[in-house]
Design goal:
This protein is an alpha+beta fold and 181 residues long. It is 41% helix and 20% strand. The chain contains 8 helices and 7 strands, in the order βββαααβαβαββααα. The strands form 2 sheets. Strands 3-7-6-5-4 form a 5-stranded antiparallel β-sheet. The chain has a two-stranded antiparallel ribbon with strand order 1-2. β6 and β7 form a beta hairpin. The two termini are 24 Å apart.
């Protein structure tokens, strides 16, 4: 529950589930499969569409084509070479993964949802060499807005994330499918 304080500042404490999923595949293999399933945002195409002033239905169709499994990578960061200079040997690549057409359905209720959309994800390896996929559960992030319409859409994100993990042959955390029941 939001707690207003002096000067109009609002503090919203909330608990978030960070999901760490052992993917059962080598780092490079899983990373390649993830990046094929979740392609990069087609910046040039969408910039052309925006310049052309197309309608939202055109954006919806273009997004569906860009996101065959519901999600797009908007950014990725691979800092492994830099961190090796400090002696680090474990690998981790982070991503901003999402879908702007889904985010829009929450945005009009509260633009601050863009704090959590797109989702921040990472693929990393631990000290024993096991590869993991990690993400914060969408419903636990977006529930902090206290808006049932936002929470409903975030439940869809949970289920989309579950479907993506299943497609990638990774274990699906039960909390991702429980939000739709």
């Amino acid at each position: 529950m939001a707690q207003p304080v002096r000067n109009g500042v609002e503090t919203v404490p909330h608990q978030v589930n960070r999901l760490a999923v052992p993917v059962g595949a080598p780092f490079d293999d899983f990373r390649a499969r993830y990046e094929l399933a979740v392609p990069m945002f087609d910046t040039e195409r969408f910039e052309r569409l925006v310049r052309g002033g197309v309608d939202w239905d055109t954006i919806l169709r273009a997004t569906e084509e860009n996101a065959p499994h519901g999600f797009i990578i908007y950014w990725s960061g691979d800092f492994n070479a830099l961190l090796r200079l400090a002696g680090e040997r474990l690998r981790c690549v982070e991503y901003l993964m999402g879908n702007h057409t889904i985010a829009q359905r929450m945005y009009h209720h509260n633009p601050a949802v863009l704090l959590y959309a797109p989702l921040r994800t990472a693929i990393y390896e631990d000290a024993s060499g096991e590869t993991w996929f990690t993400v914060e559960q969408p419903t636990t992030q977006f529930s902090s807005f206290g808006n049932p319409e936002i929470t409903d859409v975030s439940g869809e994100l949970d289920r989309e994330l579950a479907a993506l993990l299943a497609y990638l042959d990774a274990p699906v955390p039960a909390v991702l499918t429980a939000s739709g029941e």
